[in-house]
Amino acid sequence: MKRKEFLRGLGIAGAGSVLIQSVATSAHTMKKSTVPPNACTLIPSETAGPFPLDLTDNNFYFRQDVREDRTGTEHHVMMRIIGTDNCGPMANVRVNIWHCDRIGNYSGYGTEVGKTYLRGYQITDSNGEVEFITIFPGWYNGRIAHIHFQVFVSSVYAAISQFTYPIAEKNAIYAENPTIYTKGADPLSFNQDGVFADGYALQLTTLTPNTDTGGNDSFLEVSIEGTGTTGLRDIEPETGGQFKLFANNPNPFSSVTTIPFTLNNAAHVKIELYDLNGKKVLELINARMTSGAHNVVLNRGTNGITLSPGSYAYKITTENSNGVFRQAKLLTLV
Fold this sequence. Notes:
By secondary structure, the chain is mainly β.
């Protein structure tokens, strides 16, 4: 199966289940101990802006590295999504980001129609975290430097907001790279920006140098409505009420993990494991199954294949007289 067919099979257009790029394979060197908590305060809702595009309708945007051909200093964006009910991590929710390039252009609009740079999405891991590799954004008239994001929990709830950066650290990046950021320092203060003028404390990321990449890292903890570890994912209609797929346990795992699921109706069930390029690695089950609770065991060495450490997507497909329904979640092998 091709990557595009796999992603389409996850039902992206109508739901939030897809796989996540593994941070284990990226140059992830952030120091989380320096990240202040936001006390589980709901992230302010902001406009999606004039340039959001609908990432969910285009399978291409599943990716961690969103740079394409854009030049700029390397920028790693990490976000941790937590639920306001208990401050717990929100696993398996989709996070979309989009932002302008070094001179203030957005892909998909104006002279950039047909281009796709600096847009992408991931799904949070068991810690509620995602990471993107991008360039540090520039600025344009009327707006301070910022990145748009959406946390898509289910078809009935998504949080849309934006984040920005400490002014001194941000302008230092522009000053240190004048041949890249030719417009110079960002002239606006928070109070001069129409989005952040009414407050920005919960939307201000950390910004620290990354000596490994020569760029910078940012981190933002985002609180959304819901209860950590489950959130509102349980009401996602993509399963058609036919089954419930649970998170594998343990996760992360080092040798063996169990994938539990419940069938509300008898169905032909297929559970497959895919790597981060959408290539099928294993078929764990392909059989007719009765209604009720079931478990599938995944071994690090299965069917003559030894899995390498990293993140994988496990996808369940059920088929019966009610139709074909699919869902996927993330697991991590350490």
